[in-house]
């Protein structure tokens, strides 16, 4: 049985720990005290659009001087998935589609914006794009479905796992 992550202090799904830049930290990044994907800043605009500032760490290099595609997909999952969280709603990714428009240079400032396209029942349809700063060239686009969950989600998963 794996050792539980001590970083999960109770049910903090609505109020996760955040960095000074406002970035909500996932389980593993809580121990590091920073987003290991390189997300530095996060905020929710008055218009409901979430903004993220980040740079691809050198450790995520795929081709020469450009990001591994898995980093780009992870960042889009993370950033789009933070939008419900910024609205104090716990959700998980059910579907994610990523378009890799241009290679993403490592260690260069980029921005991700995420917005809700529509909501149906427990489903949030969220879209977003990654752009190169300062010019704003589009590097990647993503869209997906996030399904809202109650805080018992992970406990139910553990119970299910114990029966496998
Ligand atoms: C915490 C601080 C962290 C701090 C910061 C961390 C932020 C992390 C951000 C990244 C987010 C992630 O990566 S989350 C991790 C990756 N994702 C996961 O682990 C999810 C694994 N999958 C699942 O747990 C499950 O398949 C679910 C929950 C998605 C669906 O389970 P289910 O059993 O089908 O649920 P059910 O109640 O029947 O369905 C609920 C609703 O979802 C719809 N639905 C189900 N599957 C899909 C689907 N593939 N595509 C579209 N819609 C779907 C159903 O039609 C239904 O709609 P309706 O009838 O209600 O309308």
Automatic annotation (TrEMBL):
Keywords: Apoptosis, Cell membrane, Cell projection, Cytoplasm, Fatty acid metabolism, Hydrolase, Lipid metabolism, Membrane, Transit peptide
Residues covered by the Thioesterase domain: 65-132
Organism name: Streptomyces flaveus
Protein's name in the database: Acyl-coenzyme A thioesterase THEM4
CDD domains: PaaI_thioesterase (cd03443)
GO BP term, example: fatty acid metabolic process
Pfam families linked: 4HBT
Membrane topology, as annotated: Peripheral membrane protein
GO molecular function: hydrolase activity
Similarity comment: Belongs to the THEM4/THEM5 thioesterase family.
Signal peptide boundaries: none
E.C. number(s) listed in UniProt: 3.1.2.2
Catalytic activity: decanoyl-CoA + H2O = decanoate + CoA + H(+); octanoyl-CoA + H2O = octanoate + CoA + H(+); dodecanoyl-CoA + H2O = dodecanoate + CoA + H(+); (5Z,8Z,11Z,14Z)-eicosatetraenoyl-CoA + H2O = (5Z,8Z,11Z,14Z)-eicosatetraenoate + CoA + H(+)
One annotated Gene Ontology cellular component of this protein: cytoplasm
Higher taxonomy: Bacteria, Bacillati, Actinomycetota, Actinomycetes, Kitasatosporales
Main subcellular localisation: membrane
Localisation: Cell projection, Ruffle membrane; Cytoplasm; Membrane
